[in-house]
Automatic annotation (TrEMBL):
Organism: Actinoallomurus liliacearum
Residue spans crossing the bilayer: none
Record's protein name: ABC transporter ATP-binding protein
All copies of domain ABC transporter, residue ranges: 63-294
Listed GO MF terms: ATP binding
UniProt keyword Nucleotide-binding present: yes
């Protein structure tokens, strides 16, 4: 298990070209109006910005899994999608998960995000062992603690932007405050688009709506499964910059699956999966180093 120190803004090669995120002013302050929240509601102790946690269980990791296995099917037809994955995500870090197609990236994300149950192994969000929770409690906690962004946006076409952003909360019986929705949309650069429908927006704008939807509940971790996979390169970079800015300026923790070594360059760390196990864990590798590593895997 490995934890990274949170990245300082001055370390980062990518800045936020839009300037849409207010400066981070420390855990526990200034976060009320922001969809980003350093730390999370589960923590008895809030990790500090230098990456040390005050005795928080799980080494201060925002999310982690231990010896995760996920098998689909049984007997001769069984597919072992995950075969013993142990990984921890430190607060305020941006991790890219990479690996060949079929290596278990989506399965890992779904299991750690509480959207799928591992066959064995444990998942923790802060001090809470998620993999033990009953379905109802898990669903409640997932809505509060986890944001998820999909490659295909997964917006409801008949609903307005605002209705899409509020939908998960409304389904949970806890609609977000209108001001929180406006703020989330403003921060992804979509202020004033509340009444548009997804079909009236570009792909990049639709993914921004999906990010606002994921962040409006101020989750402790944002998971994104190939969030730029359906976008052209320039639009994809804008989305990556947006995710990066949330990490840098708001202390958001982000875990993103990507195929693209350039996209991985926005992350602090690249975890490489092959055949259901982690085969590498790289600290800010160059795009060239990532490409070389992946080509050795045939991915
Ligand atoms: P990746 O995201 O890296 O492409 P996945 O996590 O989607 O990989 O899949 C890992 C393996 O598990 C693949 O062999 C895939 O076919 C299999 N798999 C994924 N989901 C299911 C499922 N619902 N039923 C059966 N097999 C599955
Ligand atoms: Mg996948």
């Amino acid at each position: 298990m490995r934890l990274l120190r949170p990245v300082q803004a001055c370390d980062m090669p990518f800045s936020n070209p839009h300037g849409r995120f207010p400066a981070h002013d420390g855990p526990g302050t200034g976060a009320a109006a922001s969809p980003y929240r350093p730390g999370g509601a589960l923590d008895a102790t809030t990790p500090s910005r230098d990456g040390t946690a005050d005795a928080a269980p799980g080494d201060g990791a925002v999310a982690r899994c231990d010896d995760l296995h996920r098998r689909y099917g049984r007997g001769a037809n069984a597919v072992h999608a995950l075969r013993g994955v142990t990984v921890a995500f430190a607060p305020g870090t941006f991790t890219a998960v990479m690996g060949p197609s079929g290596s278990g990236k989506t399965t890992l994300l779904h299991c750690v995000a509480g959207m799928d149950r591992p066959t064995s192994g444990t998942v923790w969000w802060g001090p809470t062992e998620v993999s033990r929770l009953r379905e109802r409690r898990l669903a409640e906690l997932r809505r509060a603690e986890v944001g998820f962004v999909f490659q295909s946006f997964n917006l409801m076409p008949a609903m307005t932007v605002e209705q899409n952003v509020t939908l998960p909360g409304r389904l949970a019986g806890r609609p977000p405050e209108r001001t929180a929705v406006r703020e989330a949309l403003r921060q992804v650069g979509l202020g004033g688009r509340e009444r548009h429908r997804p079909g009236q927006l570009s792909g990049g704008q639709q993914q921004r709506v999906a990010i606002a939807r994921a962040l409006v509940s101020r989750p402790r971790v944002l998971f994104a499964d190939e969030p730029t996979g359906a976008l052209d390169r320039r639009t994809g970079m804008e989305i990556l910059s947006l995710l990066r800015a949330g990490v840098e300026e708001q202390g958001q923790t982000c875990v993103m699956v990507t195929h693209d070594p350039v996209a991985a360059g926005y992350a602090d760390r690249v975890v490489v999966l092959a055949d259901g196990v982690i085969v590498d864990d790289l600290d800010r590798p160059s795009a060239a180093a990532v490409s070389a590593r992946l080509s050795r895997l045939g991915g």
